[in-house]
Records
---
Amino acid sequence: MGIEPGRIHFSWVSSAESTKFVDVVKKVTSEVKALGPNKRFVKKKAKVA
Amino acid sequence: MKVIKIDKQDFTSGIEKLADSYRLFGPVKEKESYAFQKLEKGQLPDFNFKNTRLSIKSVINPQSEVMFEYSLDEKQTDHHVMKEAKKDYSPRAIFGVRPCDGKSMVLVKPNFDTLEYKDNYWLDSYNCTTFVGLACNDPCSTCFCTSAGSGPFDETGLDVLLIDMDDYYIAKAVTSKGEALLSAASWDTAGTLDDVEDKKSKAEKKIKTSVSIDNIKDRSINEIHQASFWEDIAFSCINCGTCTYVCPTCWCFDIQDENSGKSGVRMRNWDSCMFPLFTMHGTGHNPRGEKTQRVRQRFMHKLKYYLDKYDQGIQCVGCGRCIQSCPVNIDIRRVCNIMNDYNYE
Amino acid sequence: MIGYIDKIKEISKGLLEEKKVDMIIGFRKGTVPMINEPCVAKTSADVDNFVWDSSCGINLANYLTGRKEKIGIIAKGCDSRNIVNHIIENKINREQLTIIGVPCKGMVDRSKVKALVSSDIEEVIEKEDTMVISGADFEKTVKTSDVISKNCTICMHRNPVIFDELVAEEVDEQKDVNRYEDIDKIEAMDSGEKWNYFEDMFKSCIRCYACRNACPLCYCPTCFVDESKPQWVGKSQDPIDIWTFHFLRAYHCAGRCTDCGACVRACPMDIDVRLLTKKLEKDCFEMFNWEAGLSIDKRPPLDVFNADDPDGFIK
């Protein structure tokens, strides 16, 4: 629908996979940071016509 | 009142002049249909339209309108205070208002302008507007304005009526507000109404469908309310809001507060008697929980309650928009005539 | 297809006279061209008002939800698939229904026809494969198959998939159609182009909810947009609220949508809302080899778990 694909991640991490969890979090945060603040699909305060 | 002849090239220059003293609105083509929009500098209203999908209600009484603004930030001195939203009510002119839409303003006004209450949002918006009508030389097959108290050349509710005479326009000032607009545009060549009558009767003859209300007037509310035809009329209805939203005379709205962080607005949005939520009580009880009740409400309001309450005809101008847009072909002409012709005994 | 009506009337009258059903849901002649109105017949005399032609596009399965009577219903391919959905989702019992199946060659798209002429269409007379469109100053003959709705042009199930009576011999199912041409086009866009595309698409939405209410799948007692405790979606013309409504509604139809086109047909603003549900229909087809509403014995893919369900998106 027009959201940058890098903002959405799916992963399956078992509670025993602590290193995988850390890797996933690092990857997600770095990819989202690279994209910068989200401008799309953000509701703005209603304008006075 | 003045009658002015406007050559088509002078029309363009007049519009440019008016842009200095008015905010201009008019029909604009959007994909396959037309909508009333604010005209940008140098933009002309597009008169190649039959009728717009939404009426001028979308300008006078917009679908979403902010009424108040507030702050919840306690560092602000005026936090938790509802403040009137500041709006631009400087003079505005709407071009290309079809006579049905002009008439709708007269029908809608008593709801917003009563002795007891004044709806200032609607009134300010209405009062700042000069309505420049455009007579219908070529009405649609769904039009039935002539039997709904209006007509393709009706001036009611308008300030100026423009008549397209092919090579030029005849502008008939209906009010002093309208005369002021004509002067501001430097449209000042005197014209005559000699050829207008012919155009008018030709246009009226093109309207082939009609509604009758004499019997509705004489019958009691209960008789019509309890008649047996409602279930058949309502069966196909899917209870969407299309008919009420495209209708120039449907005026209902809902008030909502919308918060965003530490500030927010109180706004109103069009609402529709077709939606179950419209009448839902806080208790969960819904007095119009069934679709037949809601369909009956819409037609009773337009064709009976309004007629009885205001004594100025039905709350319908015969624009035919609901007929064209209804997804399941519920036709107000058919419903009105069923209500009128039914054998009440 | 116009020849079906005699058989439809004959079957309908028989069902009512034999008291096999309490009512029959069909169409009566519309008051304006190219749209007939859904109606109910409870007597043989009512049946005389029934019509059948290419202007019977409205999905009649929408009128079955939660009804208690014994009902006869006239069903095209898509209606029949939505009846299957209704049975699977317990919105109606199979035993209540007598399905009068109608093989279909597609239903007319009013906007397509209106776009062919510059003035108002006053009358449309349907012949076997053509339609004669006329107005105050014109008359034009068009091939019906050229003006049927987009979803009908790519329909793979024109014949009813479930029925008790069939009004005519089955029509040939279409082959070699590109079912997902418009979806492929959107999928090929980058995210910025998609954003602009949808922004333009929903600009004219007036939130009348005709798309939702015309959809046989949208029968929730309270739709999420109408919830007030909590209120999930704002009520104004805010574009994000409008998008939220359309996208979420589409997701609620995933694995259920038959691509009947009711949503598009109902939209007073000509928004192609069907594109959203069509994308999900495509995904269900490609990932689960699933087409909704084909059998009352199969559970939809979102109802069941299989070890081999595609999960390539989980990293």
---
Amino acid sequence: MGVKKRISGCVATANAVKLADVEVICSYPIRPYTGIMSELARMVADGELDAEFVYGEGEHGQLSVVYGASAAGARAFTGSSGVGVTYAMEVYSPISGERLPLQMAIADRTLDPPGDFGSEQTDALCCRDQGWIQGWASTPQEALDLTLLYYRIGEDPRVLLPQYACQDGYFVSHILGEVDIPDAAQVKEFLPPYKNHHVLDPRNPQIIGAQMEPSMGPGMQYQRYQAIEGSRKVIEEVHEEFGRIFGRKYAPWVEEYMTDDAEVVIFMQGGHAETCKTVVKRLRNLGEKVGLVRLRTFRPFPTQQVRDALGRFKAVGVVDNSVNFGISGAAGVLLTEARTALYGLGDKVPTVGFVAGLGGEMITHDEFYKMFAKLKEVAKAGKADKQSYWLPFEL
Amino acid sequence: MSVPVKEVPFAGTVPSPKTENEGMITGNWRTRRPVLDADKCTNCLICWISCPDSSVNQNADVVSFNLKYCKGCGICNEVCPVGAISLAPELDFED
């Protein structure tokens, strides 16, 4: 068995990168994700990890370095936060199009303005449709596990896609949690060495990222579509095997908390869900039938699983910790996706959007109590009189 | 017409043609032509390494240029340590 340590989400991710025996790392500083890179730099300097540690000249450069490293056959790792994530935007699609399964950790930070470096999932959600596997950890332990799970899923020959392993800035990245760091032998059993599909080798010259005629375009996009749709089965298999080897069982798509006889639930992702759990528990002590459904994998979006999970409640509140100005439903992308999943169930399951925790503010217990009170009203009336509420101003 | 999915190379990766691509002749983009001063050239081949379009031929005793594909970017002129490559306006030439 491994060792138990009290570490932050950043340090947990760095430990996972070390256990995954990553060969090329490219860094560029921006808080809060920088904590991962400073820990990795220390590991490399102290001889704990044998990896090429490259200093990028910016996030666009960072992603380009790991792109090449992955094409050359190395297991590669990078990361960023906030505007750093969006600065590298151009490089995400080529990486998934070339089917290079490198990993990027994102510790969320707001985009500017407000430029207050607080946590907000907008940065990572901007890149949600780039053909990458994506999901959120809610604790430092899960941050460590997500890194290992995603390398395994992404490198599976049936998938071959890059991954965003996301965690909320500060609320996960800088809060200490008890983390079970697994044995290197266990990780070796779980994660075989990376083998890429085409090796960049001067003895066998190839064109990677060739310019193509427009008639090749639809087929190229269809390949990527098939890869991300095909990853669903692999995601389930890999979570199963993870549980068998490490003894930690995660539901691959949604985690349900006190939902057995629940009438109203909150649906959300990320570290704020841990705060919500406390509120659910207190309300349960008062006899309220409330629960929480936490999304674990955002891309590919588990439409059927979310439909099955949410379709049985009298009202669902969807918490979006991001801004999507002008979106249908006037809240965030999670509300839109949840409604798509529930489409066809008519008015049976009224949904309400809550935009909360923007700019790095905490979503407080008080705010969760207000959300559950609103959901109780909605369940009673059988419909919502407003699509969404911005907290703390509208509720 | 779209190419059928099965005929699209996986991840768009293809073996290098290692030959000239007749479908993509870029020499006519050129406004400046590289001209070699063979007396100065030391055959160090830094121009060959640096040419982004593989338009420096290195199989002869001294370097020569493949003008069918040279876009006239002038990198060879920049990197030549002995100043053996100059750039002449393309309109100065008959061909």
